[in-house]
Amino acid sequence: MKGASRPSTQTNDLMALRLTTPSAGGVRQSAADLAELARARLARGEGDAYRALFSEAAREEDPNERYRLRMALLQAGVEAAAYLSGRRLAEAYVQIARAGVEALEEEPREPSLLNHVGVAFYEVGALQAAEALFKAARRLDPELPHLRRNLEELARRRRMGVDLLRALPKPLALALGTLTHRAERVAERARPAEGLTISLCMIVKDEEEMLPRCLEAAHRAVDEIVIVDTGSTDRTIEIAESYGARVIEAEWTGSFADARNISFEAATGDWLLYLDADEVIVAEDAPKLRELAGHVWREAFFFVETNFTGDLDDGTAVNHNTLRMFRNRPHYRFEGRIHEQIAHRLPSIPERLERPSVRIEHYGYLGAVRDAKEKSRRNIELLERQVADGEDTPFLHFNLGSEHAAAGDAERARERFAKAWRLLENDPERTAYGYVPSLTNRYVKALRVTGRHAEARAVAEEGLRLFPGFTDLVLEQAHVARALGDLDEAARLIERCLEMGDAPSRYSPMVGCGSYVALNALADIRREQGELAEAEALLDRALREHPTYLGSVRPLAEAMLARGVDPEEVAAHVEQAVETPTASTLFMLGVALYEAGHVEVAEARFRAVLDKQPSSDAARVALAEALLSQKRWQEAAEAARGVLPESSHAAPACRAELFARIVSGDREGAERALAEAARGALPAGEVALFRAWHDAACGRPLPAALSGEAAPLLGVTLEALLRVQEVEAFAQLVPLVERIGLDRREQRELLASIYLRRGFLESAGDEWAAACEEHGPDARALLGLAQVAYARGREDDAVLFASTALELEPDNAGARRMLERLEPQPV
């Protein structure tokens, strides 16, 4: 029922109470058949026959399917009653109430059932029983839709003095009296379970750096720790056992799912919680696990995971919802060798899943966001099925938007968040729903990322009105101000974030928005404003005050290197700031040193990572690239070859090995690596590019054409060859630029950009000049010529080229920045 008035003299003075809204496809065929029978039997006045259907449902062995059937029968009963009146209406509701109470006597901890049965009592005037059931449902699930509205309607009926019981036939009134006592006893029993246990399950290998922090945060909140070790050579097992873990040593089969399932099979808890070693439960949230364990009306819980590193556009972090805790049932097991999955094993009943109330921080230094994107694409498919089945709830659209955002599709995320926001606009209970703060923040971010800055500001202001002290929204306002070029306003807002501190945990905020994330954002603005010393000081403060936050490591190192500090001194400063450098710290430091051209110092850090974590494929690939930059071809190839084919880093490792083999003339090694790449390590277009290069190095002709799929890799390869001054190999490959499907203008742009970055200024200028001659002047070419002129010290020419670019394209941010650099006065 959705709030429409009843076609009955008993309820025409009141708005009908609300129930949940089931999805059109959320009921299996067996449930649909029972529901149809239920409607027919109540319509004929066959109350006992209607209740007999609940006995049929009780024979279902699976508890979730049994629940689904009972909910379908109750909903069908309410739908049938809508077409009845007078005594038949009252009799129908008494039968619905009786059937519901009997089901609840078996298991009273079912919030939705309690709400439905409470409505049945309400409709016949048994307000005492209805109130007890509504309050019991609220005690279990305060966010259950319509509960607050139902209690308000009940209070309103009492204030109006409406007494429907007097109008009931005496037998029905007597029956209701007995049922009321039973309902009150059921309501009293409807409390979270106590004494249920939690097993933390993990798979690890060489995680001595990360594991202690993970276990320290979690071990007091769980009853058992089961860890499957797949071949550690460091202190991982010793550390795990020091926290009371039961360690199972298992051979690595190449399947993450197999390893996880070993830990699940060994676990004895009522609930299974799984984490990776580089994931840490937020300290203030860990005690919530005990509370969640009592929620036996759920099958699984999603947590909010914050990934602090990866391919992030704004340099901060990304949040996504991740399934991490579920009932210990034999059929809840993972599938999939690399991207293991379990969500599809859970019941497709929305109220059986609870959304984020616990936060996890993910400190993995590479791939975190990429892996989240892959999982999100699979989740999107599942959620879209619910949409196709007719479900149209704000919560569903919020989840879809969240998955699109994690997958990197900001526009689709914005569309879904906007739909959820619109559906909630007139809901007086919206601030009570736990997901709405996250919806607000993610909607603002999606608006900002898609360039809708005015809307982002408006929604942020509305969000702060609804959720006072929500620091994340103030930080988003700062990002909007920065995007609009108002750096002073952006800095003011970030300083406000630092004054506010992190938002209350009830908002599921991103940890650090009132501290280290804000400090890093402010440092970035100061750098852009030219205040390099202050930027460096802010980054140094962020790292010293929050040494576990990796986001400060690389920008601090880059700031010091840009100031001309000796690279060894930079490394020592960063390592001292964090007191005990972890593998992740060393990795991020190595990346900063490598990108600044201090390859030997970077190499030492990557090797130190591998000493601490021998299984770190990210560090192995980075080491290979550092060796490539030093033209140590054989060492680079062997380092890359150490990455296993099933690793998520197999593709970059394969590229590094092929580069080393081909440029060094290792024909046999190149052939072997090409064969492995062709078996699936690389896309076909990339394999074709390396094959063409290998053929050219062997004196064979280049192919007449290559797939456009190879274009990005060709650009990277050409630039890498110039970086290591392999000019002959560069000359062999450069003709391929004309054979990969790019038009002539884009060919010019590709080569000119490579030449500029590698310092071949004359060649870069020639390409952009040729682009102007062949296609007419455009903003990109003119800005490129401005950059060449500036690099040569010809500032007047640079101003001329940049000004002309800005005339052709007034919104060209690069040309504007160039002029601001050359002409401090406003342009």
Short description:
The chain is mainly α. It is built from 37 helices and nine strands. Strands 1, 2, 3, 4, 5, 6, 7, 8 and 9 form a nine-stranded mixed sheet that branches.
Question: What do these coordinates show?
Answer:
Helices cover 59% and strands 6% of the residues. Strands 1, 2, 3, 4, 5, 6, 7, 8 and 9 form a 9-stranded mixed β-sheet that branches. It has 37 helices and 9 strands. It is mainly alpha-helical. α9 links the parallel β1 and β2 (224-229). α5 packs antiparallel against α6, α15 (410-424) packs across α16 and α16 runs parallel beside α18 (471-483). The chain is elongated and about 100 Å long.
Question: Helix and strand layout, with pairings?
Answer:
Elements: H1 29-43, H2 47-58, H3 63-81, H4 86-106, H5 111-123, H6 127-140, H7 147-160, H8 170-189, E1 198-204, H9 211-218, E2 224-229, H10 236-242, E3 246-249, H11 256-266, E4 271-274, E5 279-281, H12 288-293, E6 300-307, E7 318-327, E8 353-354, E9 359-362, H13 368-388, H14 394-406, H15 410-424, H16 436-449, H17 453-466, H18 471-483, H19 487-500, H20 516-528, H21 532-545, H22 553-562, H23 567-577, H24 583-595, H25 599-612, H26 617-629, H27 633-641, H28 650-663, H29 667-681, H30 684-697, H31 711-723, H32 727-733, H33 744-757, H34 761-775, H35 779-791, H36 795-808, H37 813-822
Parallel strand pairs: 1-2, 1-4, 2-3, 6-8, 6-9
Antiparallel strand pairs: 4-7, 5-9, 6-7
